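Notes, Module 5: Reading structure tokens.

Key idea: the token line is not a picture. It is a compressed description, and you learn to read it the same way you learned to read a sequence, by spotting repeated patterns. We will look at two proteins. The first is printed below with its tokens.
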Amino acid sequence: MSSPAIRPGVKRLGIFGGTFDPVHTGHLILARDILERAGLDHIVFLPAARNPLKTDGPLASGKDRADMLRAALRGSDGFSVSTVDIDRPPPSFALETVAALRREWPDACFAWIIGRDQLSGLHRWHRIDDLAAEVEFIVLRRPGPDTGLPERPSLRLRVMDTRLMELSSTEIRQRIAAGKSVDFFVPSAVIEVIDKRSLYATA
């Protein structure tokens, strides 16, 4: 396997992980907001492999989800897709992901983007203190009760308010399975991939 190309000029790199099953306009608006408001130079979208803390998984294959992301981001500066998680055998751990990305962006400071709902389980992440030495966590605050930040000195946390996006991949899959239009829910380039490959015919 050839070595990844080193990406110069990126000082602050955001890591935006998720199933993206499929990616939708809410994901893209959120990423643009974070890029600008957090002062990042670049955000890499990271389609997830099997989460070691969950028993269920995405419906579309890793390749399909990565291709949908590439279609959605085509022509947009400041964003790219990494398949380091789906290219290696599961389970996938964030610390290994960061090590892989570090080979491509050796001089960047990394910020891992998570939802506020993930904070309570952050202590269960594999070798969390080692991970915390490598990344800052950008925590997306959403409407609802604020349970406070975890008391773990090693964590570097930056909390950001986010837009309320009433849109989910689950709803999109259900609409496709029911034969309803998803125009404006997802970019047209993503719809082309979904239609061509007959994705989400059942949800």
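Here is the second protein, with the sequence above and the tokens below, as before.
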Amino acid sequence: MRIIVADDEPDMREYFQTILSVLGHEVLAVAADGEELVARCIETIPEVVITDLRMPLLNGDEAIRRIWQRIPVPVVFISAFPFPEDLKLSAPTTALRYLNKPINRNQLREVLDSLSSPLPPKT
């Protein structure tokens, strides 16, 4: 899959670039904040987005809302914090997953495998 990764921690961006390549995926771009994530998604149209929930300039959930206005891309939210129970996104796709840090290779593989079925075209 063609994936964009967003995390404000350089070590996490590097980890995802390495592990996703090992798992056979292509990292199209990395972003350090939500605004950069939105720009990269519009430029490259990924098949999946992996994003931290808490980032500077624009949180991951708000960035995804903006992206979904243009692209119904599957998303894997990651966070070192418990996911807020009040996080409600009006998803154009049912392909929405959550992973808590630290994330290991098997967890990531399972989540990406669960997203690998093709999405229906946007109407």
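Summary for the second protein:
- Residues 119-123 have pLDDT under 50 and may be disordered.
- Residues 10-22 form the longest helix (13 residues).
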